[in-house]
Structures are given as C-alpha cells and as structure tokens.
Specification:
The protein is mainly alpha-helical. 88% of the residues lie in helices and 0% in strands. It contains six helices and no strands. It is flat, with a radius of gyration of 22 Å.
C-alpha cells in the first residue's frame, strides 16, 4: 500500500514537471507579435497614427509570407525525416524553397510600395532594419536561454 502511494506521488510530481516543461516550450504567437510590433514601433519612431495604419499591413505581409513558405517548410521537414532521400527529393525541396524566396521578394516589393504611401522613405528603411534587428535579438535571447538551462542542470 505504501509503495503504491509513493509511486502515485512520484508519478504526480513527474507529470507536473513534464507539464511545466511543455508549457515552457509553448510558443505564444500573440505575445511574440505584440513584442515585435512594439519593437518596430519604437525603433522606427512611428506616431500612433502611422502605427495604426502600418502595423496591420506588416502583419498582413508576414502572414502572406508565412503561407507562401508553408510547402517549403513541409518538404524540408519531410526530407529531414526521410530514411534515404534521393537527389530528386533534394532537388524538389531546393526548387520549392527558391520559388518561395522569389515569391517572398515579390510580396515585399508590393508591400513596400504600400508602406511608402504611409511612411517616409527613411522610416521604411528603418522598418527593414528593425525587422532584422528584432530577429537577431530574438535568436540571441533563445540561445542565451538555452545556455542558462544547461547551466542549471
């Protein structure tokens, strides 16, 4: 009886720890987008009026780029898990991903023309740099978090 209770307590603690770990790994997309939008607003120096027009367009562009890249991500994931990928498999992924890059560039060109109707050329330029800076900072913070986790172990 005692061993059953002990096993149940251990199992309960393990399940709680496992659940906490899953929650830590969960990506909160809304919070991420809010942080990115706030960062861009500050970095570019958007007025509230500019932000009200500009940020929804940025989000729309990101969503379209995400959708365009869906097949490339799918094929890339498949080839990583494939036992013995062939040259044809690799060529298919390469071609699809290159097509995605072309489509993304076309989308950016289209949206940057729309951005220029809302913002000055200087702010459009600052926006582009702010996007890259945000991604760099985000990736760096992810690496720093992983280092901290390893040090705790």
């Amino acid at each position: 009886m005692f061993s059953c209770v002990l096993i149940q307590c251990s199992r309960s603690k393990w399940e709680t720890a496992s659940q906490e770990k899953k929650e830590q790994r969960h990506f909160d997309r809304e919070a991420f987008e809010a942080r990115r939008n706030a960062f861009i607003t500050a970095e570019v120096g958007l007025t509230p009026e500019e932000a009200a027009q500009f940020i929804p367009l940025c989000n729309e562009l990101r969503q379209k780029k995400f959708e365009v890249g869906r097949e490339c991500r799918k094929l890339s994931k498949e080839i990583r898990h494939k036992e013995n990928p062939t040259d044809a498999d690799y060529n298919k992924v390469i071609d699809e991903c290159l097509d995605v890059e072309i489509k993304e560039a076309q989308l950016e060109k289209e949206y940057f023309e729309r951005f220029k109707k809302i913002l000055s050329p200087e702010k459009v330029y600052k926006y582009r740099n702010a996007e890259y800076k945000f991604v760099r900072n985000f990736m760096k913070s992810g690496r720093d978090n992983k280092k901290e986790e390893k040090q705790k172990k």
